[in-house]
UniProtKB/TrEMBL annotation:
GO terms for biological process: homophilic cell adhesion via plasma membrane adhesion molecules. InterPro entries: Cadherin-like_dom, Cadherin-like_sf, Cadherin_C, Cadherin_CS, Cadherin_N, Protocadherin/Cadherin-CA. CDD domains: Cadherin_repeat. It is a single-pass type I membrane protein. The lineage of its organism: Eukaryota, Metazoa, Chordata, Craniata, Vertebrata. This is Cadherin domain-containing protein. GO terms for molecular function: calcium ion binding.
Length: 768
């Protein structure tokens, strides 16, 4: 309502006589800053500055917008807000902002017109940032392709003045101008025939430039798509494709991709792929993607079966044109095969006397892999007696390097390891079990260095006395030991026929009875021989000791049994107690305890007159001889063993001798006594003392050993016969007294071995 009021007032003012006929005109450039001075409107209107305030001067416009304001103090007209010509006037060639300067008291107005001058503040702008044209490659030169021009909000010389192409190209140029009724146009002109296969798209910039200073420009991108005609067949990027794939690649792995291009476009340039033919069964191992040309595995590969595969691939476009290429797939070896050990020959068992360098086995190694994966090295593990020796190519010999000993090791387990040079390496171990066959290289060995066996004399025939045993470290026949008697020297015959050895078990037998008194011991060589070829043997000494039995009676050496006349002993009358009358000496052919002798008085005419040394056999006086003793004394000496020898002694007194001499004549005779109380043959005593020994005493002396019977001979008397001497004491020849038997020991005698008494031991015995 206020605006309407202002318009009515303005109309009234215009009708006033004080209005100025010509407007006051000013010009101002657009985009001026607020407060910019346009002009001094008071001065141009012929008004004093003081009147402006006094008359309430103000500005009024038809649209009510206040683009300007009046400075009442100075009368200047200033810009009230930013002026945008394009916003205020659009594309009009001129842009004028009219308003009135009103004064009151009296009412007066002035028309003011301010022309807003254009400045080049806008650049040309295309309606699209990119314009695409699809032009058949068969289009003729000179063909025009219109496009929408750029728009510039500025006017006049600041508007678009020209178009250009950047960069320049040989195919297109730009044409622009005004048609009838002033309508402007812009066109692209084809200058040269297009070839889509050579250049499927042509791109450049279309630039619009205005006439400002400096000029402004606008750009749009022109994209020319050349439409295809099927005038080209597909072409592979390579005539021959080579791909590599690991032999352990899984199914579905991509081997490679073939690429064929068709310079045509659209269906004419759409290429599909397929296998046209395959060599052998290769096509069954691969599949090709019809769109991408990607070749994949359909089955596992094996380098050892085929190192490469050759395929033929056909590429066909949508128009039916096609091309061919070859694809070579190389299978890359993977160390997936362990070395193989193939034994050509193997010798087992091996004789233990095989010479060093003897070939035990010949084998070859191989690996189906290639390169380093197929390079093989062999090693023999932990053996000092064997080694590997290269033969030729991949052949190796397993040979001995030192002598073998079956008795130490009868079987060798040899591990030959073949390893390839792959990463990681694969290995194969071949085991050779070498048995060592026996060679007769060991002699039998007895379990003792010598043997001592014992047999009692008078043995039964073929009695077993012991056994020898020998072992042989060899085996089989080489270890089968047989026994036999061997001569001391090879040329001799076995010395003893009374001993036999069982050839199988080594038992030793005595074939006939032996007599200790004839043979104390026998030494023989027993040979142990194996059954090898040639046989080996060893000897051992077997000593057979004959153990004595008490099968011999003692033999009286003195007094002699054969003396004639009978031996006599004279005892002086003055002899004191302990006087040695005589000594009975006896021996026993047995040994050991069987030969130990002891002497005892069995009977005596005067038991108290004489005594016999139990070990020495000495007959001594127990007391002095008196006149009352009989001139002849009889003594029976008894042995304590089952077998005994008896000596009879007569003591005679010669009356014609002086009184201070009292001699006894003792006669001794051996009498075998099966038992202690055997009868005595005393005829020799009667003959010895015929008429000369009126008072004779007779004694029986029995000498004992072990069991057994022997005849003993007496030595002759050592002392001469003395004349008889009467004694005042005697009991007559018939007076006898029997003594009890008692045990006698000889602890001072120790034999070499049980049942054996050596000659040295016997000679060392004391009879005193």
């Amino acid at each position: 309502r206020d605006t309407l009021l202002q318009v009515l007032c303005l109309s009234a003012f215009l009708s006033l006589p004080h209005a100025r006929a010509e407007p006051i005109r000013y010009s101002v450039a657009e985009e001026g800053e607020s407060g910019s001075v346009v002009a001094n409107v008071a001065e141009d209107a012929g008004l004093a500055p003081a009147q402006l305030s006094a008359r309430r001067a103000r500005l009024a416009s038809e649209d009510g917008r206040q683009h300007f304001r009046l400075d009442r103090g100075t009368g200047r007209l200033v810009v009230a807000e930013r002026l945008d010509r394009e916003e205020l006037c659009g594309q009009s060639a001129t842009c004028t902002l009219p308003f009135e300067l009103l004064l009151a008291n009296p009412l007066q107005f002035f028309r003011v017109e301010v022309a807003v001058e254009d400045i080049n503040d806008h650049s040309p702008v295309f309606p699209e940032e990119q314009v695409t044209f699809k032009i058949p490659e068969t289009s003729n030169p000179g063909s025009r392709f219109p496009l929408e021009g750029a728009r510039d909000l500025d006017v006049g010389s600041n508007s678009i003045q020209a178009y250009s192409i950047a960069p320049q190209n040989e195919y297109f140029s730009v044409s622009y101008g005004s048609r009838i009724k002033g309508k402007k146009y812009v066109e692209l002109v084809l200058e040269k025939p297009l070839d889509r296969e050579e250049e499927a798209e042509v791109g450049f910039s279309l630039i619009a430039v205005d006439g400002g200073s400096p000029p402004r420009s606008g750009t749009t991108q022109i994209r020319i798509v050349v439409l295809d005609a099927n005038d080209n067949a597909p072409v592979f990027t390579q005539e021959r494709y080579i791909g590599q794939v690991l032999e352990n690649a899984v199914e579905g792995s991509v081997v490679l991709s073939v690429v064929a291009t068709d310079r045509d476009a659209g269906p004419n340039g759409e290429v599909s792929y397929q296998f046209s033919q395959a060599v052998g069964q290769s096509h069954s191992l691969f599949a090709i993607d019809a769109v991408t040309g990607e070749i994949r595995l359909t089955k596992p590969l094996d380098f050892e079966a085929a190192e490469n595969h050759e395929l033929s691939v056909r590429a066909t476009d949508g128009g039916g044109l096609s091309a061919m290429c070859k694809v070579l797939v190389e299978v890359v070896d993977v160390n997936d095969n362990a070395p193989e050990v193939v034994v050509s020959s193997f010798s087992s068992p091996l004789p233990e006397n095989a010479l060093p360098g003897t070939v035990v086995a010949l084998f070859t190694v191989r690996d189906r892999d290639a390169g380093a994966n197929g390079k093989i090295s062999c090693a023999l593990e932990d053996q000092l007696l064997f080694s590997l020796r290269p033969a030729y190519k991949n052949y190796y010999e397993l040979v001995t390097v030192s002598t073998l000993d079956r008795e130490e090791t009868a079987r060798y387990t040899l591990a030959v390891t073949a390893a390839d040079a792959g990463s990681p390496p694969l290995t194969t171990t071949q085991t050779f079990t070498v048995d060592i066959s026996d060679v007769n290289d060991n002699v039998p060995v007895f379990n003792q260095t010598s043997y001592t066996m014992y047999v009692r004399e008078n043995n039964v025939p073929t009695v077993l006395v012991g056994a020898v045993s020998a072992s042989d470290a060899d085996e089989g026949p080489n270890a089968k030991v047989t026994y036999s008697l061997a001569p001391a020297h090879p040329a001799e015959r076995p010395p003893c026929s009374c001993i036999s050895v069982n050839s199988e078990n080594g038992q030793v037998f005595v074939l006939r009875p032996l007599d200790y008194e004839q043979v104390r011991q026998i030494e023989v060589l027993v040979s142990a021989s194996d059954a090898g070829t040639p046989p080996l043997s060893a000897n051992v000494t077997v000593r057979l000791v004959v153990v004595d039995e008490n099968d011999n009676a003692p033999l009286v050496l003195y007094p002699s049994q054969d003396s004639s006349p009978a031996s006599s002993e004279l005892v002086p009358k003055s002899s004191e107690a302990g006087y040695l009358v005589t000594k009975v000496v006896a021996v026993d052919a047995d040994s050991g305890q069987n030969s130990w002798l002891s002497y005892h008085l069995l009977r005596a005419t005067d038991p108290g007159l004489f005594a016999v040394g139990a070990q020495s056999g000495e007959v001594r006086l127990r007391r002095p001889v008196t006149e009352r003793d009989a001139v002849k004394q009889k003594l029976v000496v008894l042995g304590a063993r089952q077998r005994a020898a008896t000596a009879v002694s007569h003591r005679c007194t010669e009356r014609r001798l002086p009184d201070d001499l009292f001699n006894h004549f003792v006669g001794l005779r051996l009498r075998p006594l099966p038992r202690i109380h055997g009868s005595l043959h005393l005829a020799w005593l009667t003959r010895a003392a015929a008429g000369t020994l009126p008072h004779a005493y007779c004694y029986e002396i029995s000498l004992t050993t072990g069991s057994g019977n022997s005849e003993f001979k007496f030595l002759k008397p050592i002392l001469p016969s003395l004349p008889p001497q009467h004694s005042g004491m005697g009991r007559g020849t018939g007076d006898e007294q029997e003594f009890s038997r008692g045990p006698v020991t000889m602890e001072d005698v120790a034999p070499d071995s049980p049942g054996t008494l050596s000659a040295e031991q016997f000679n060392s015995l004391s009879f005193n």
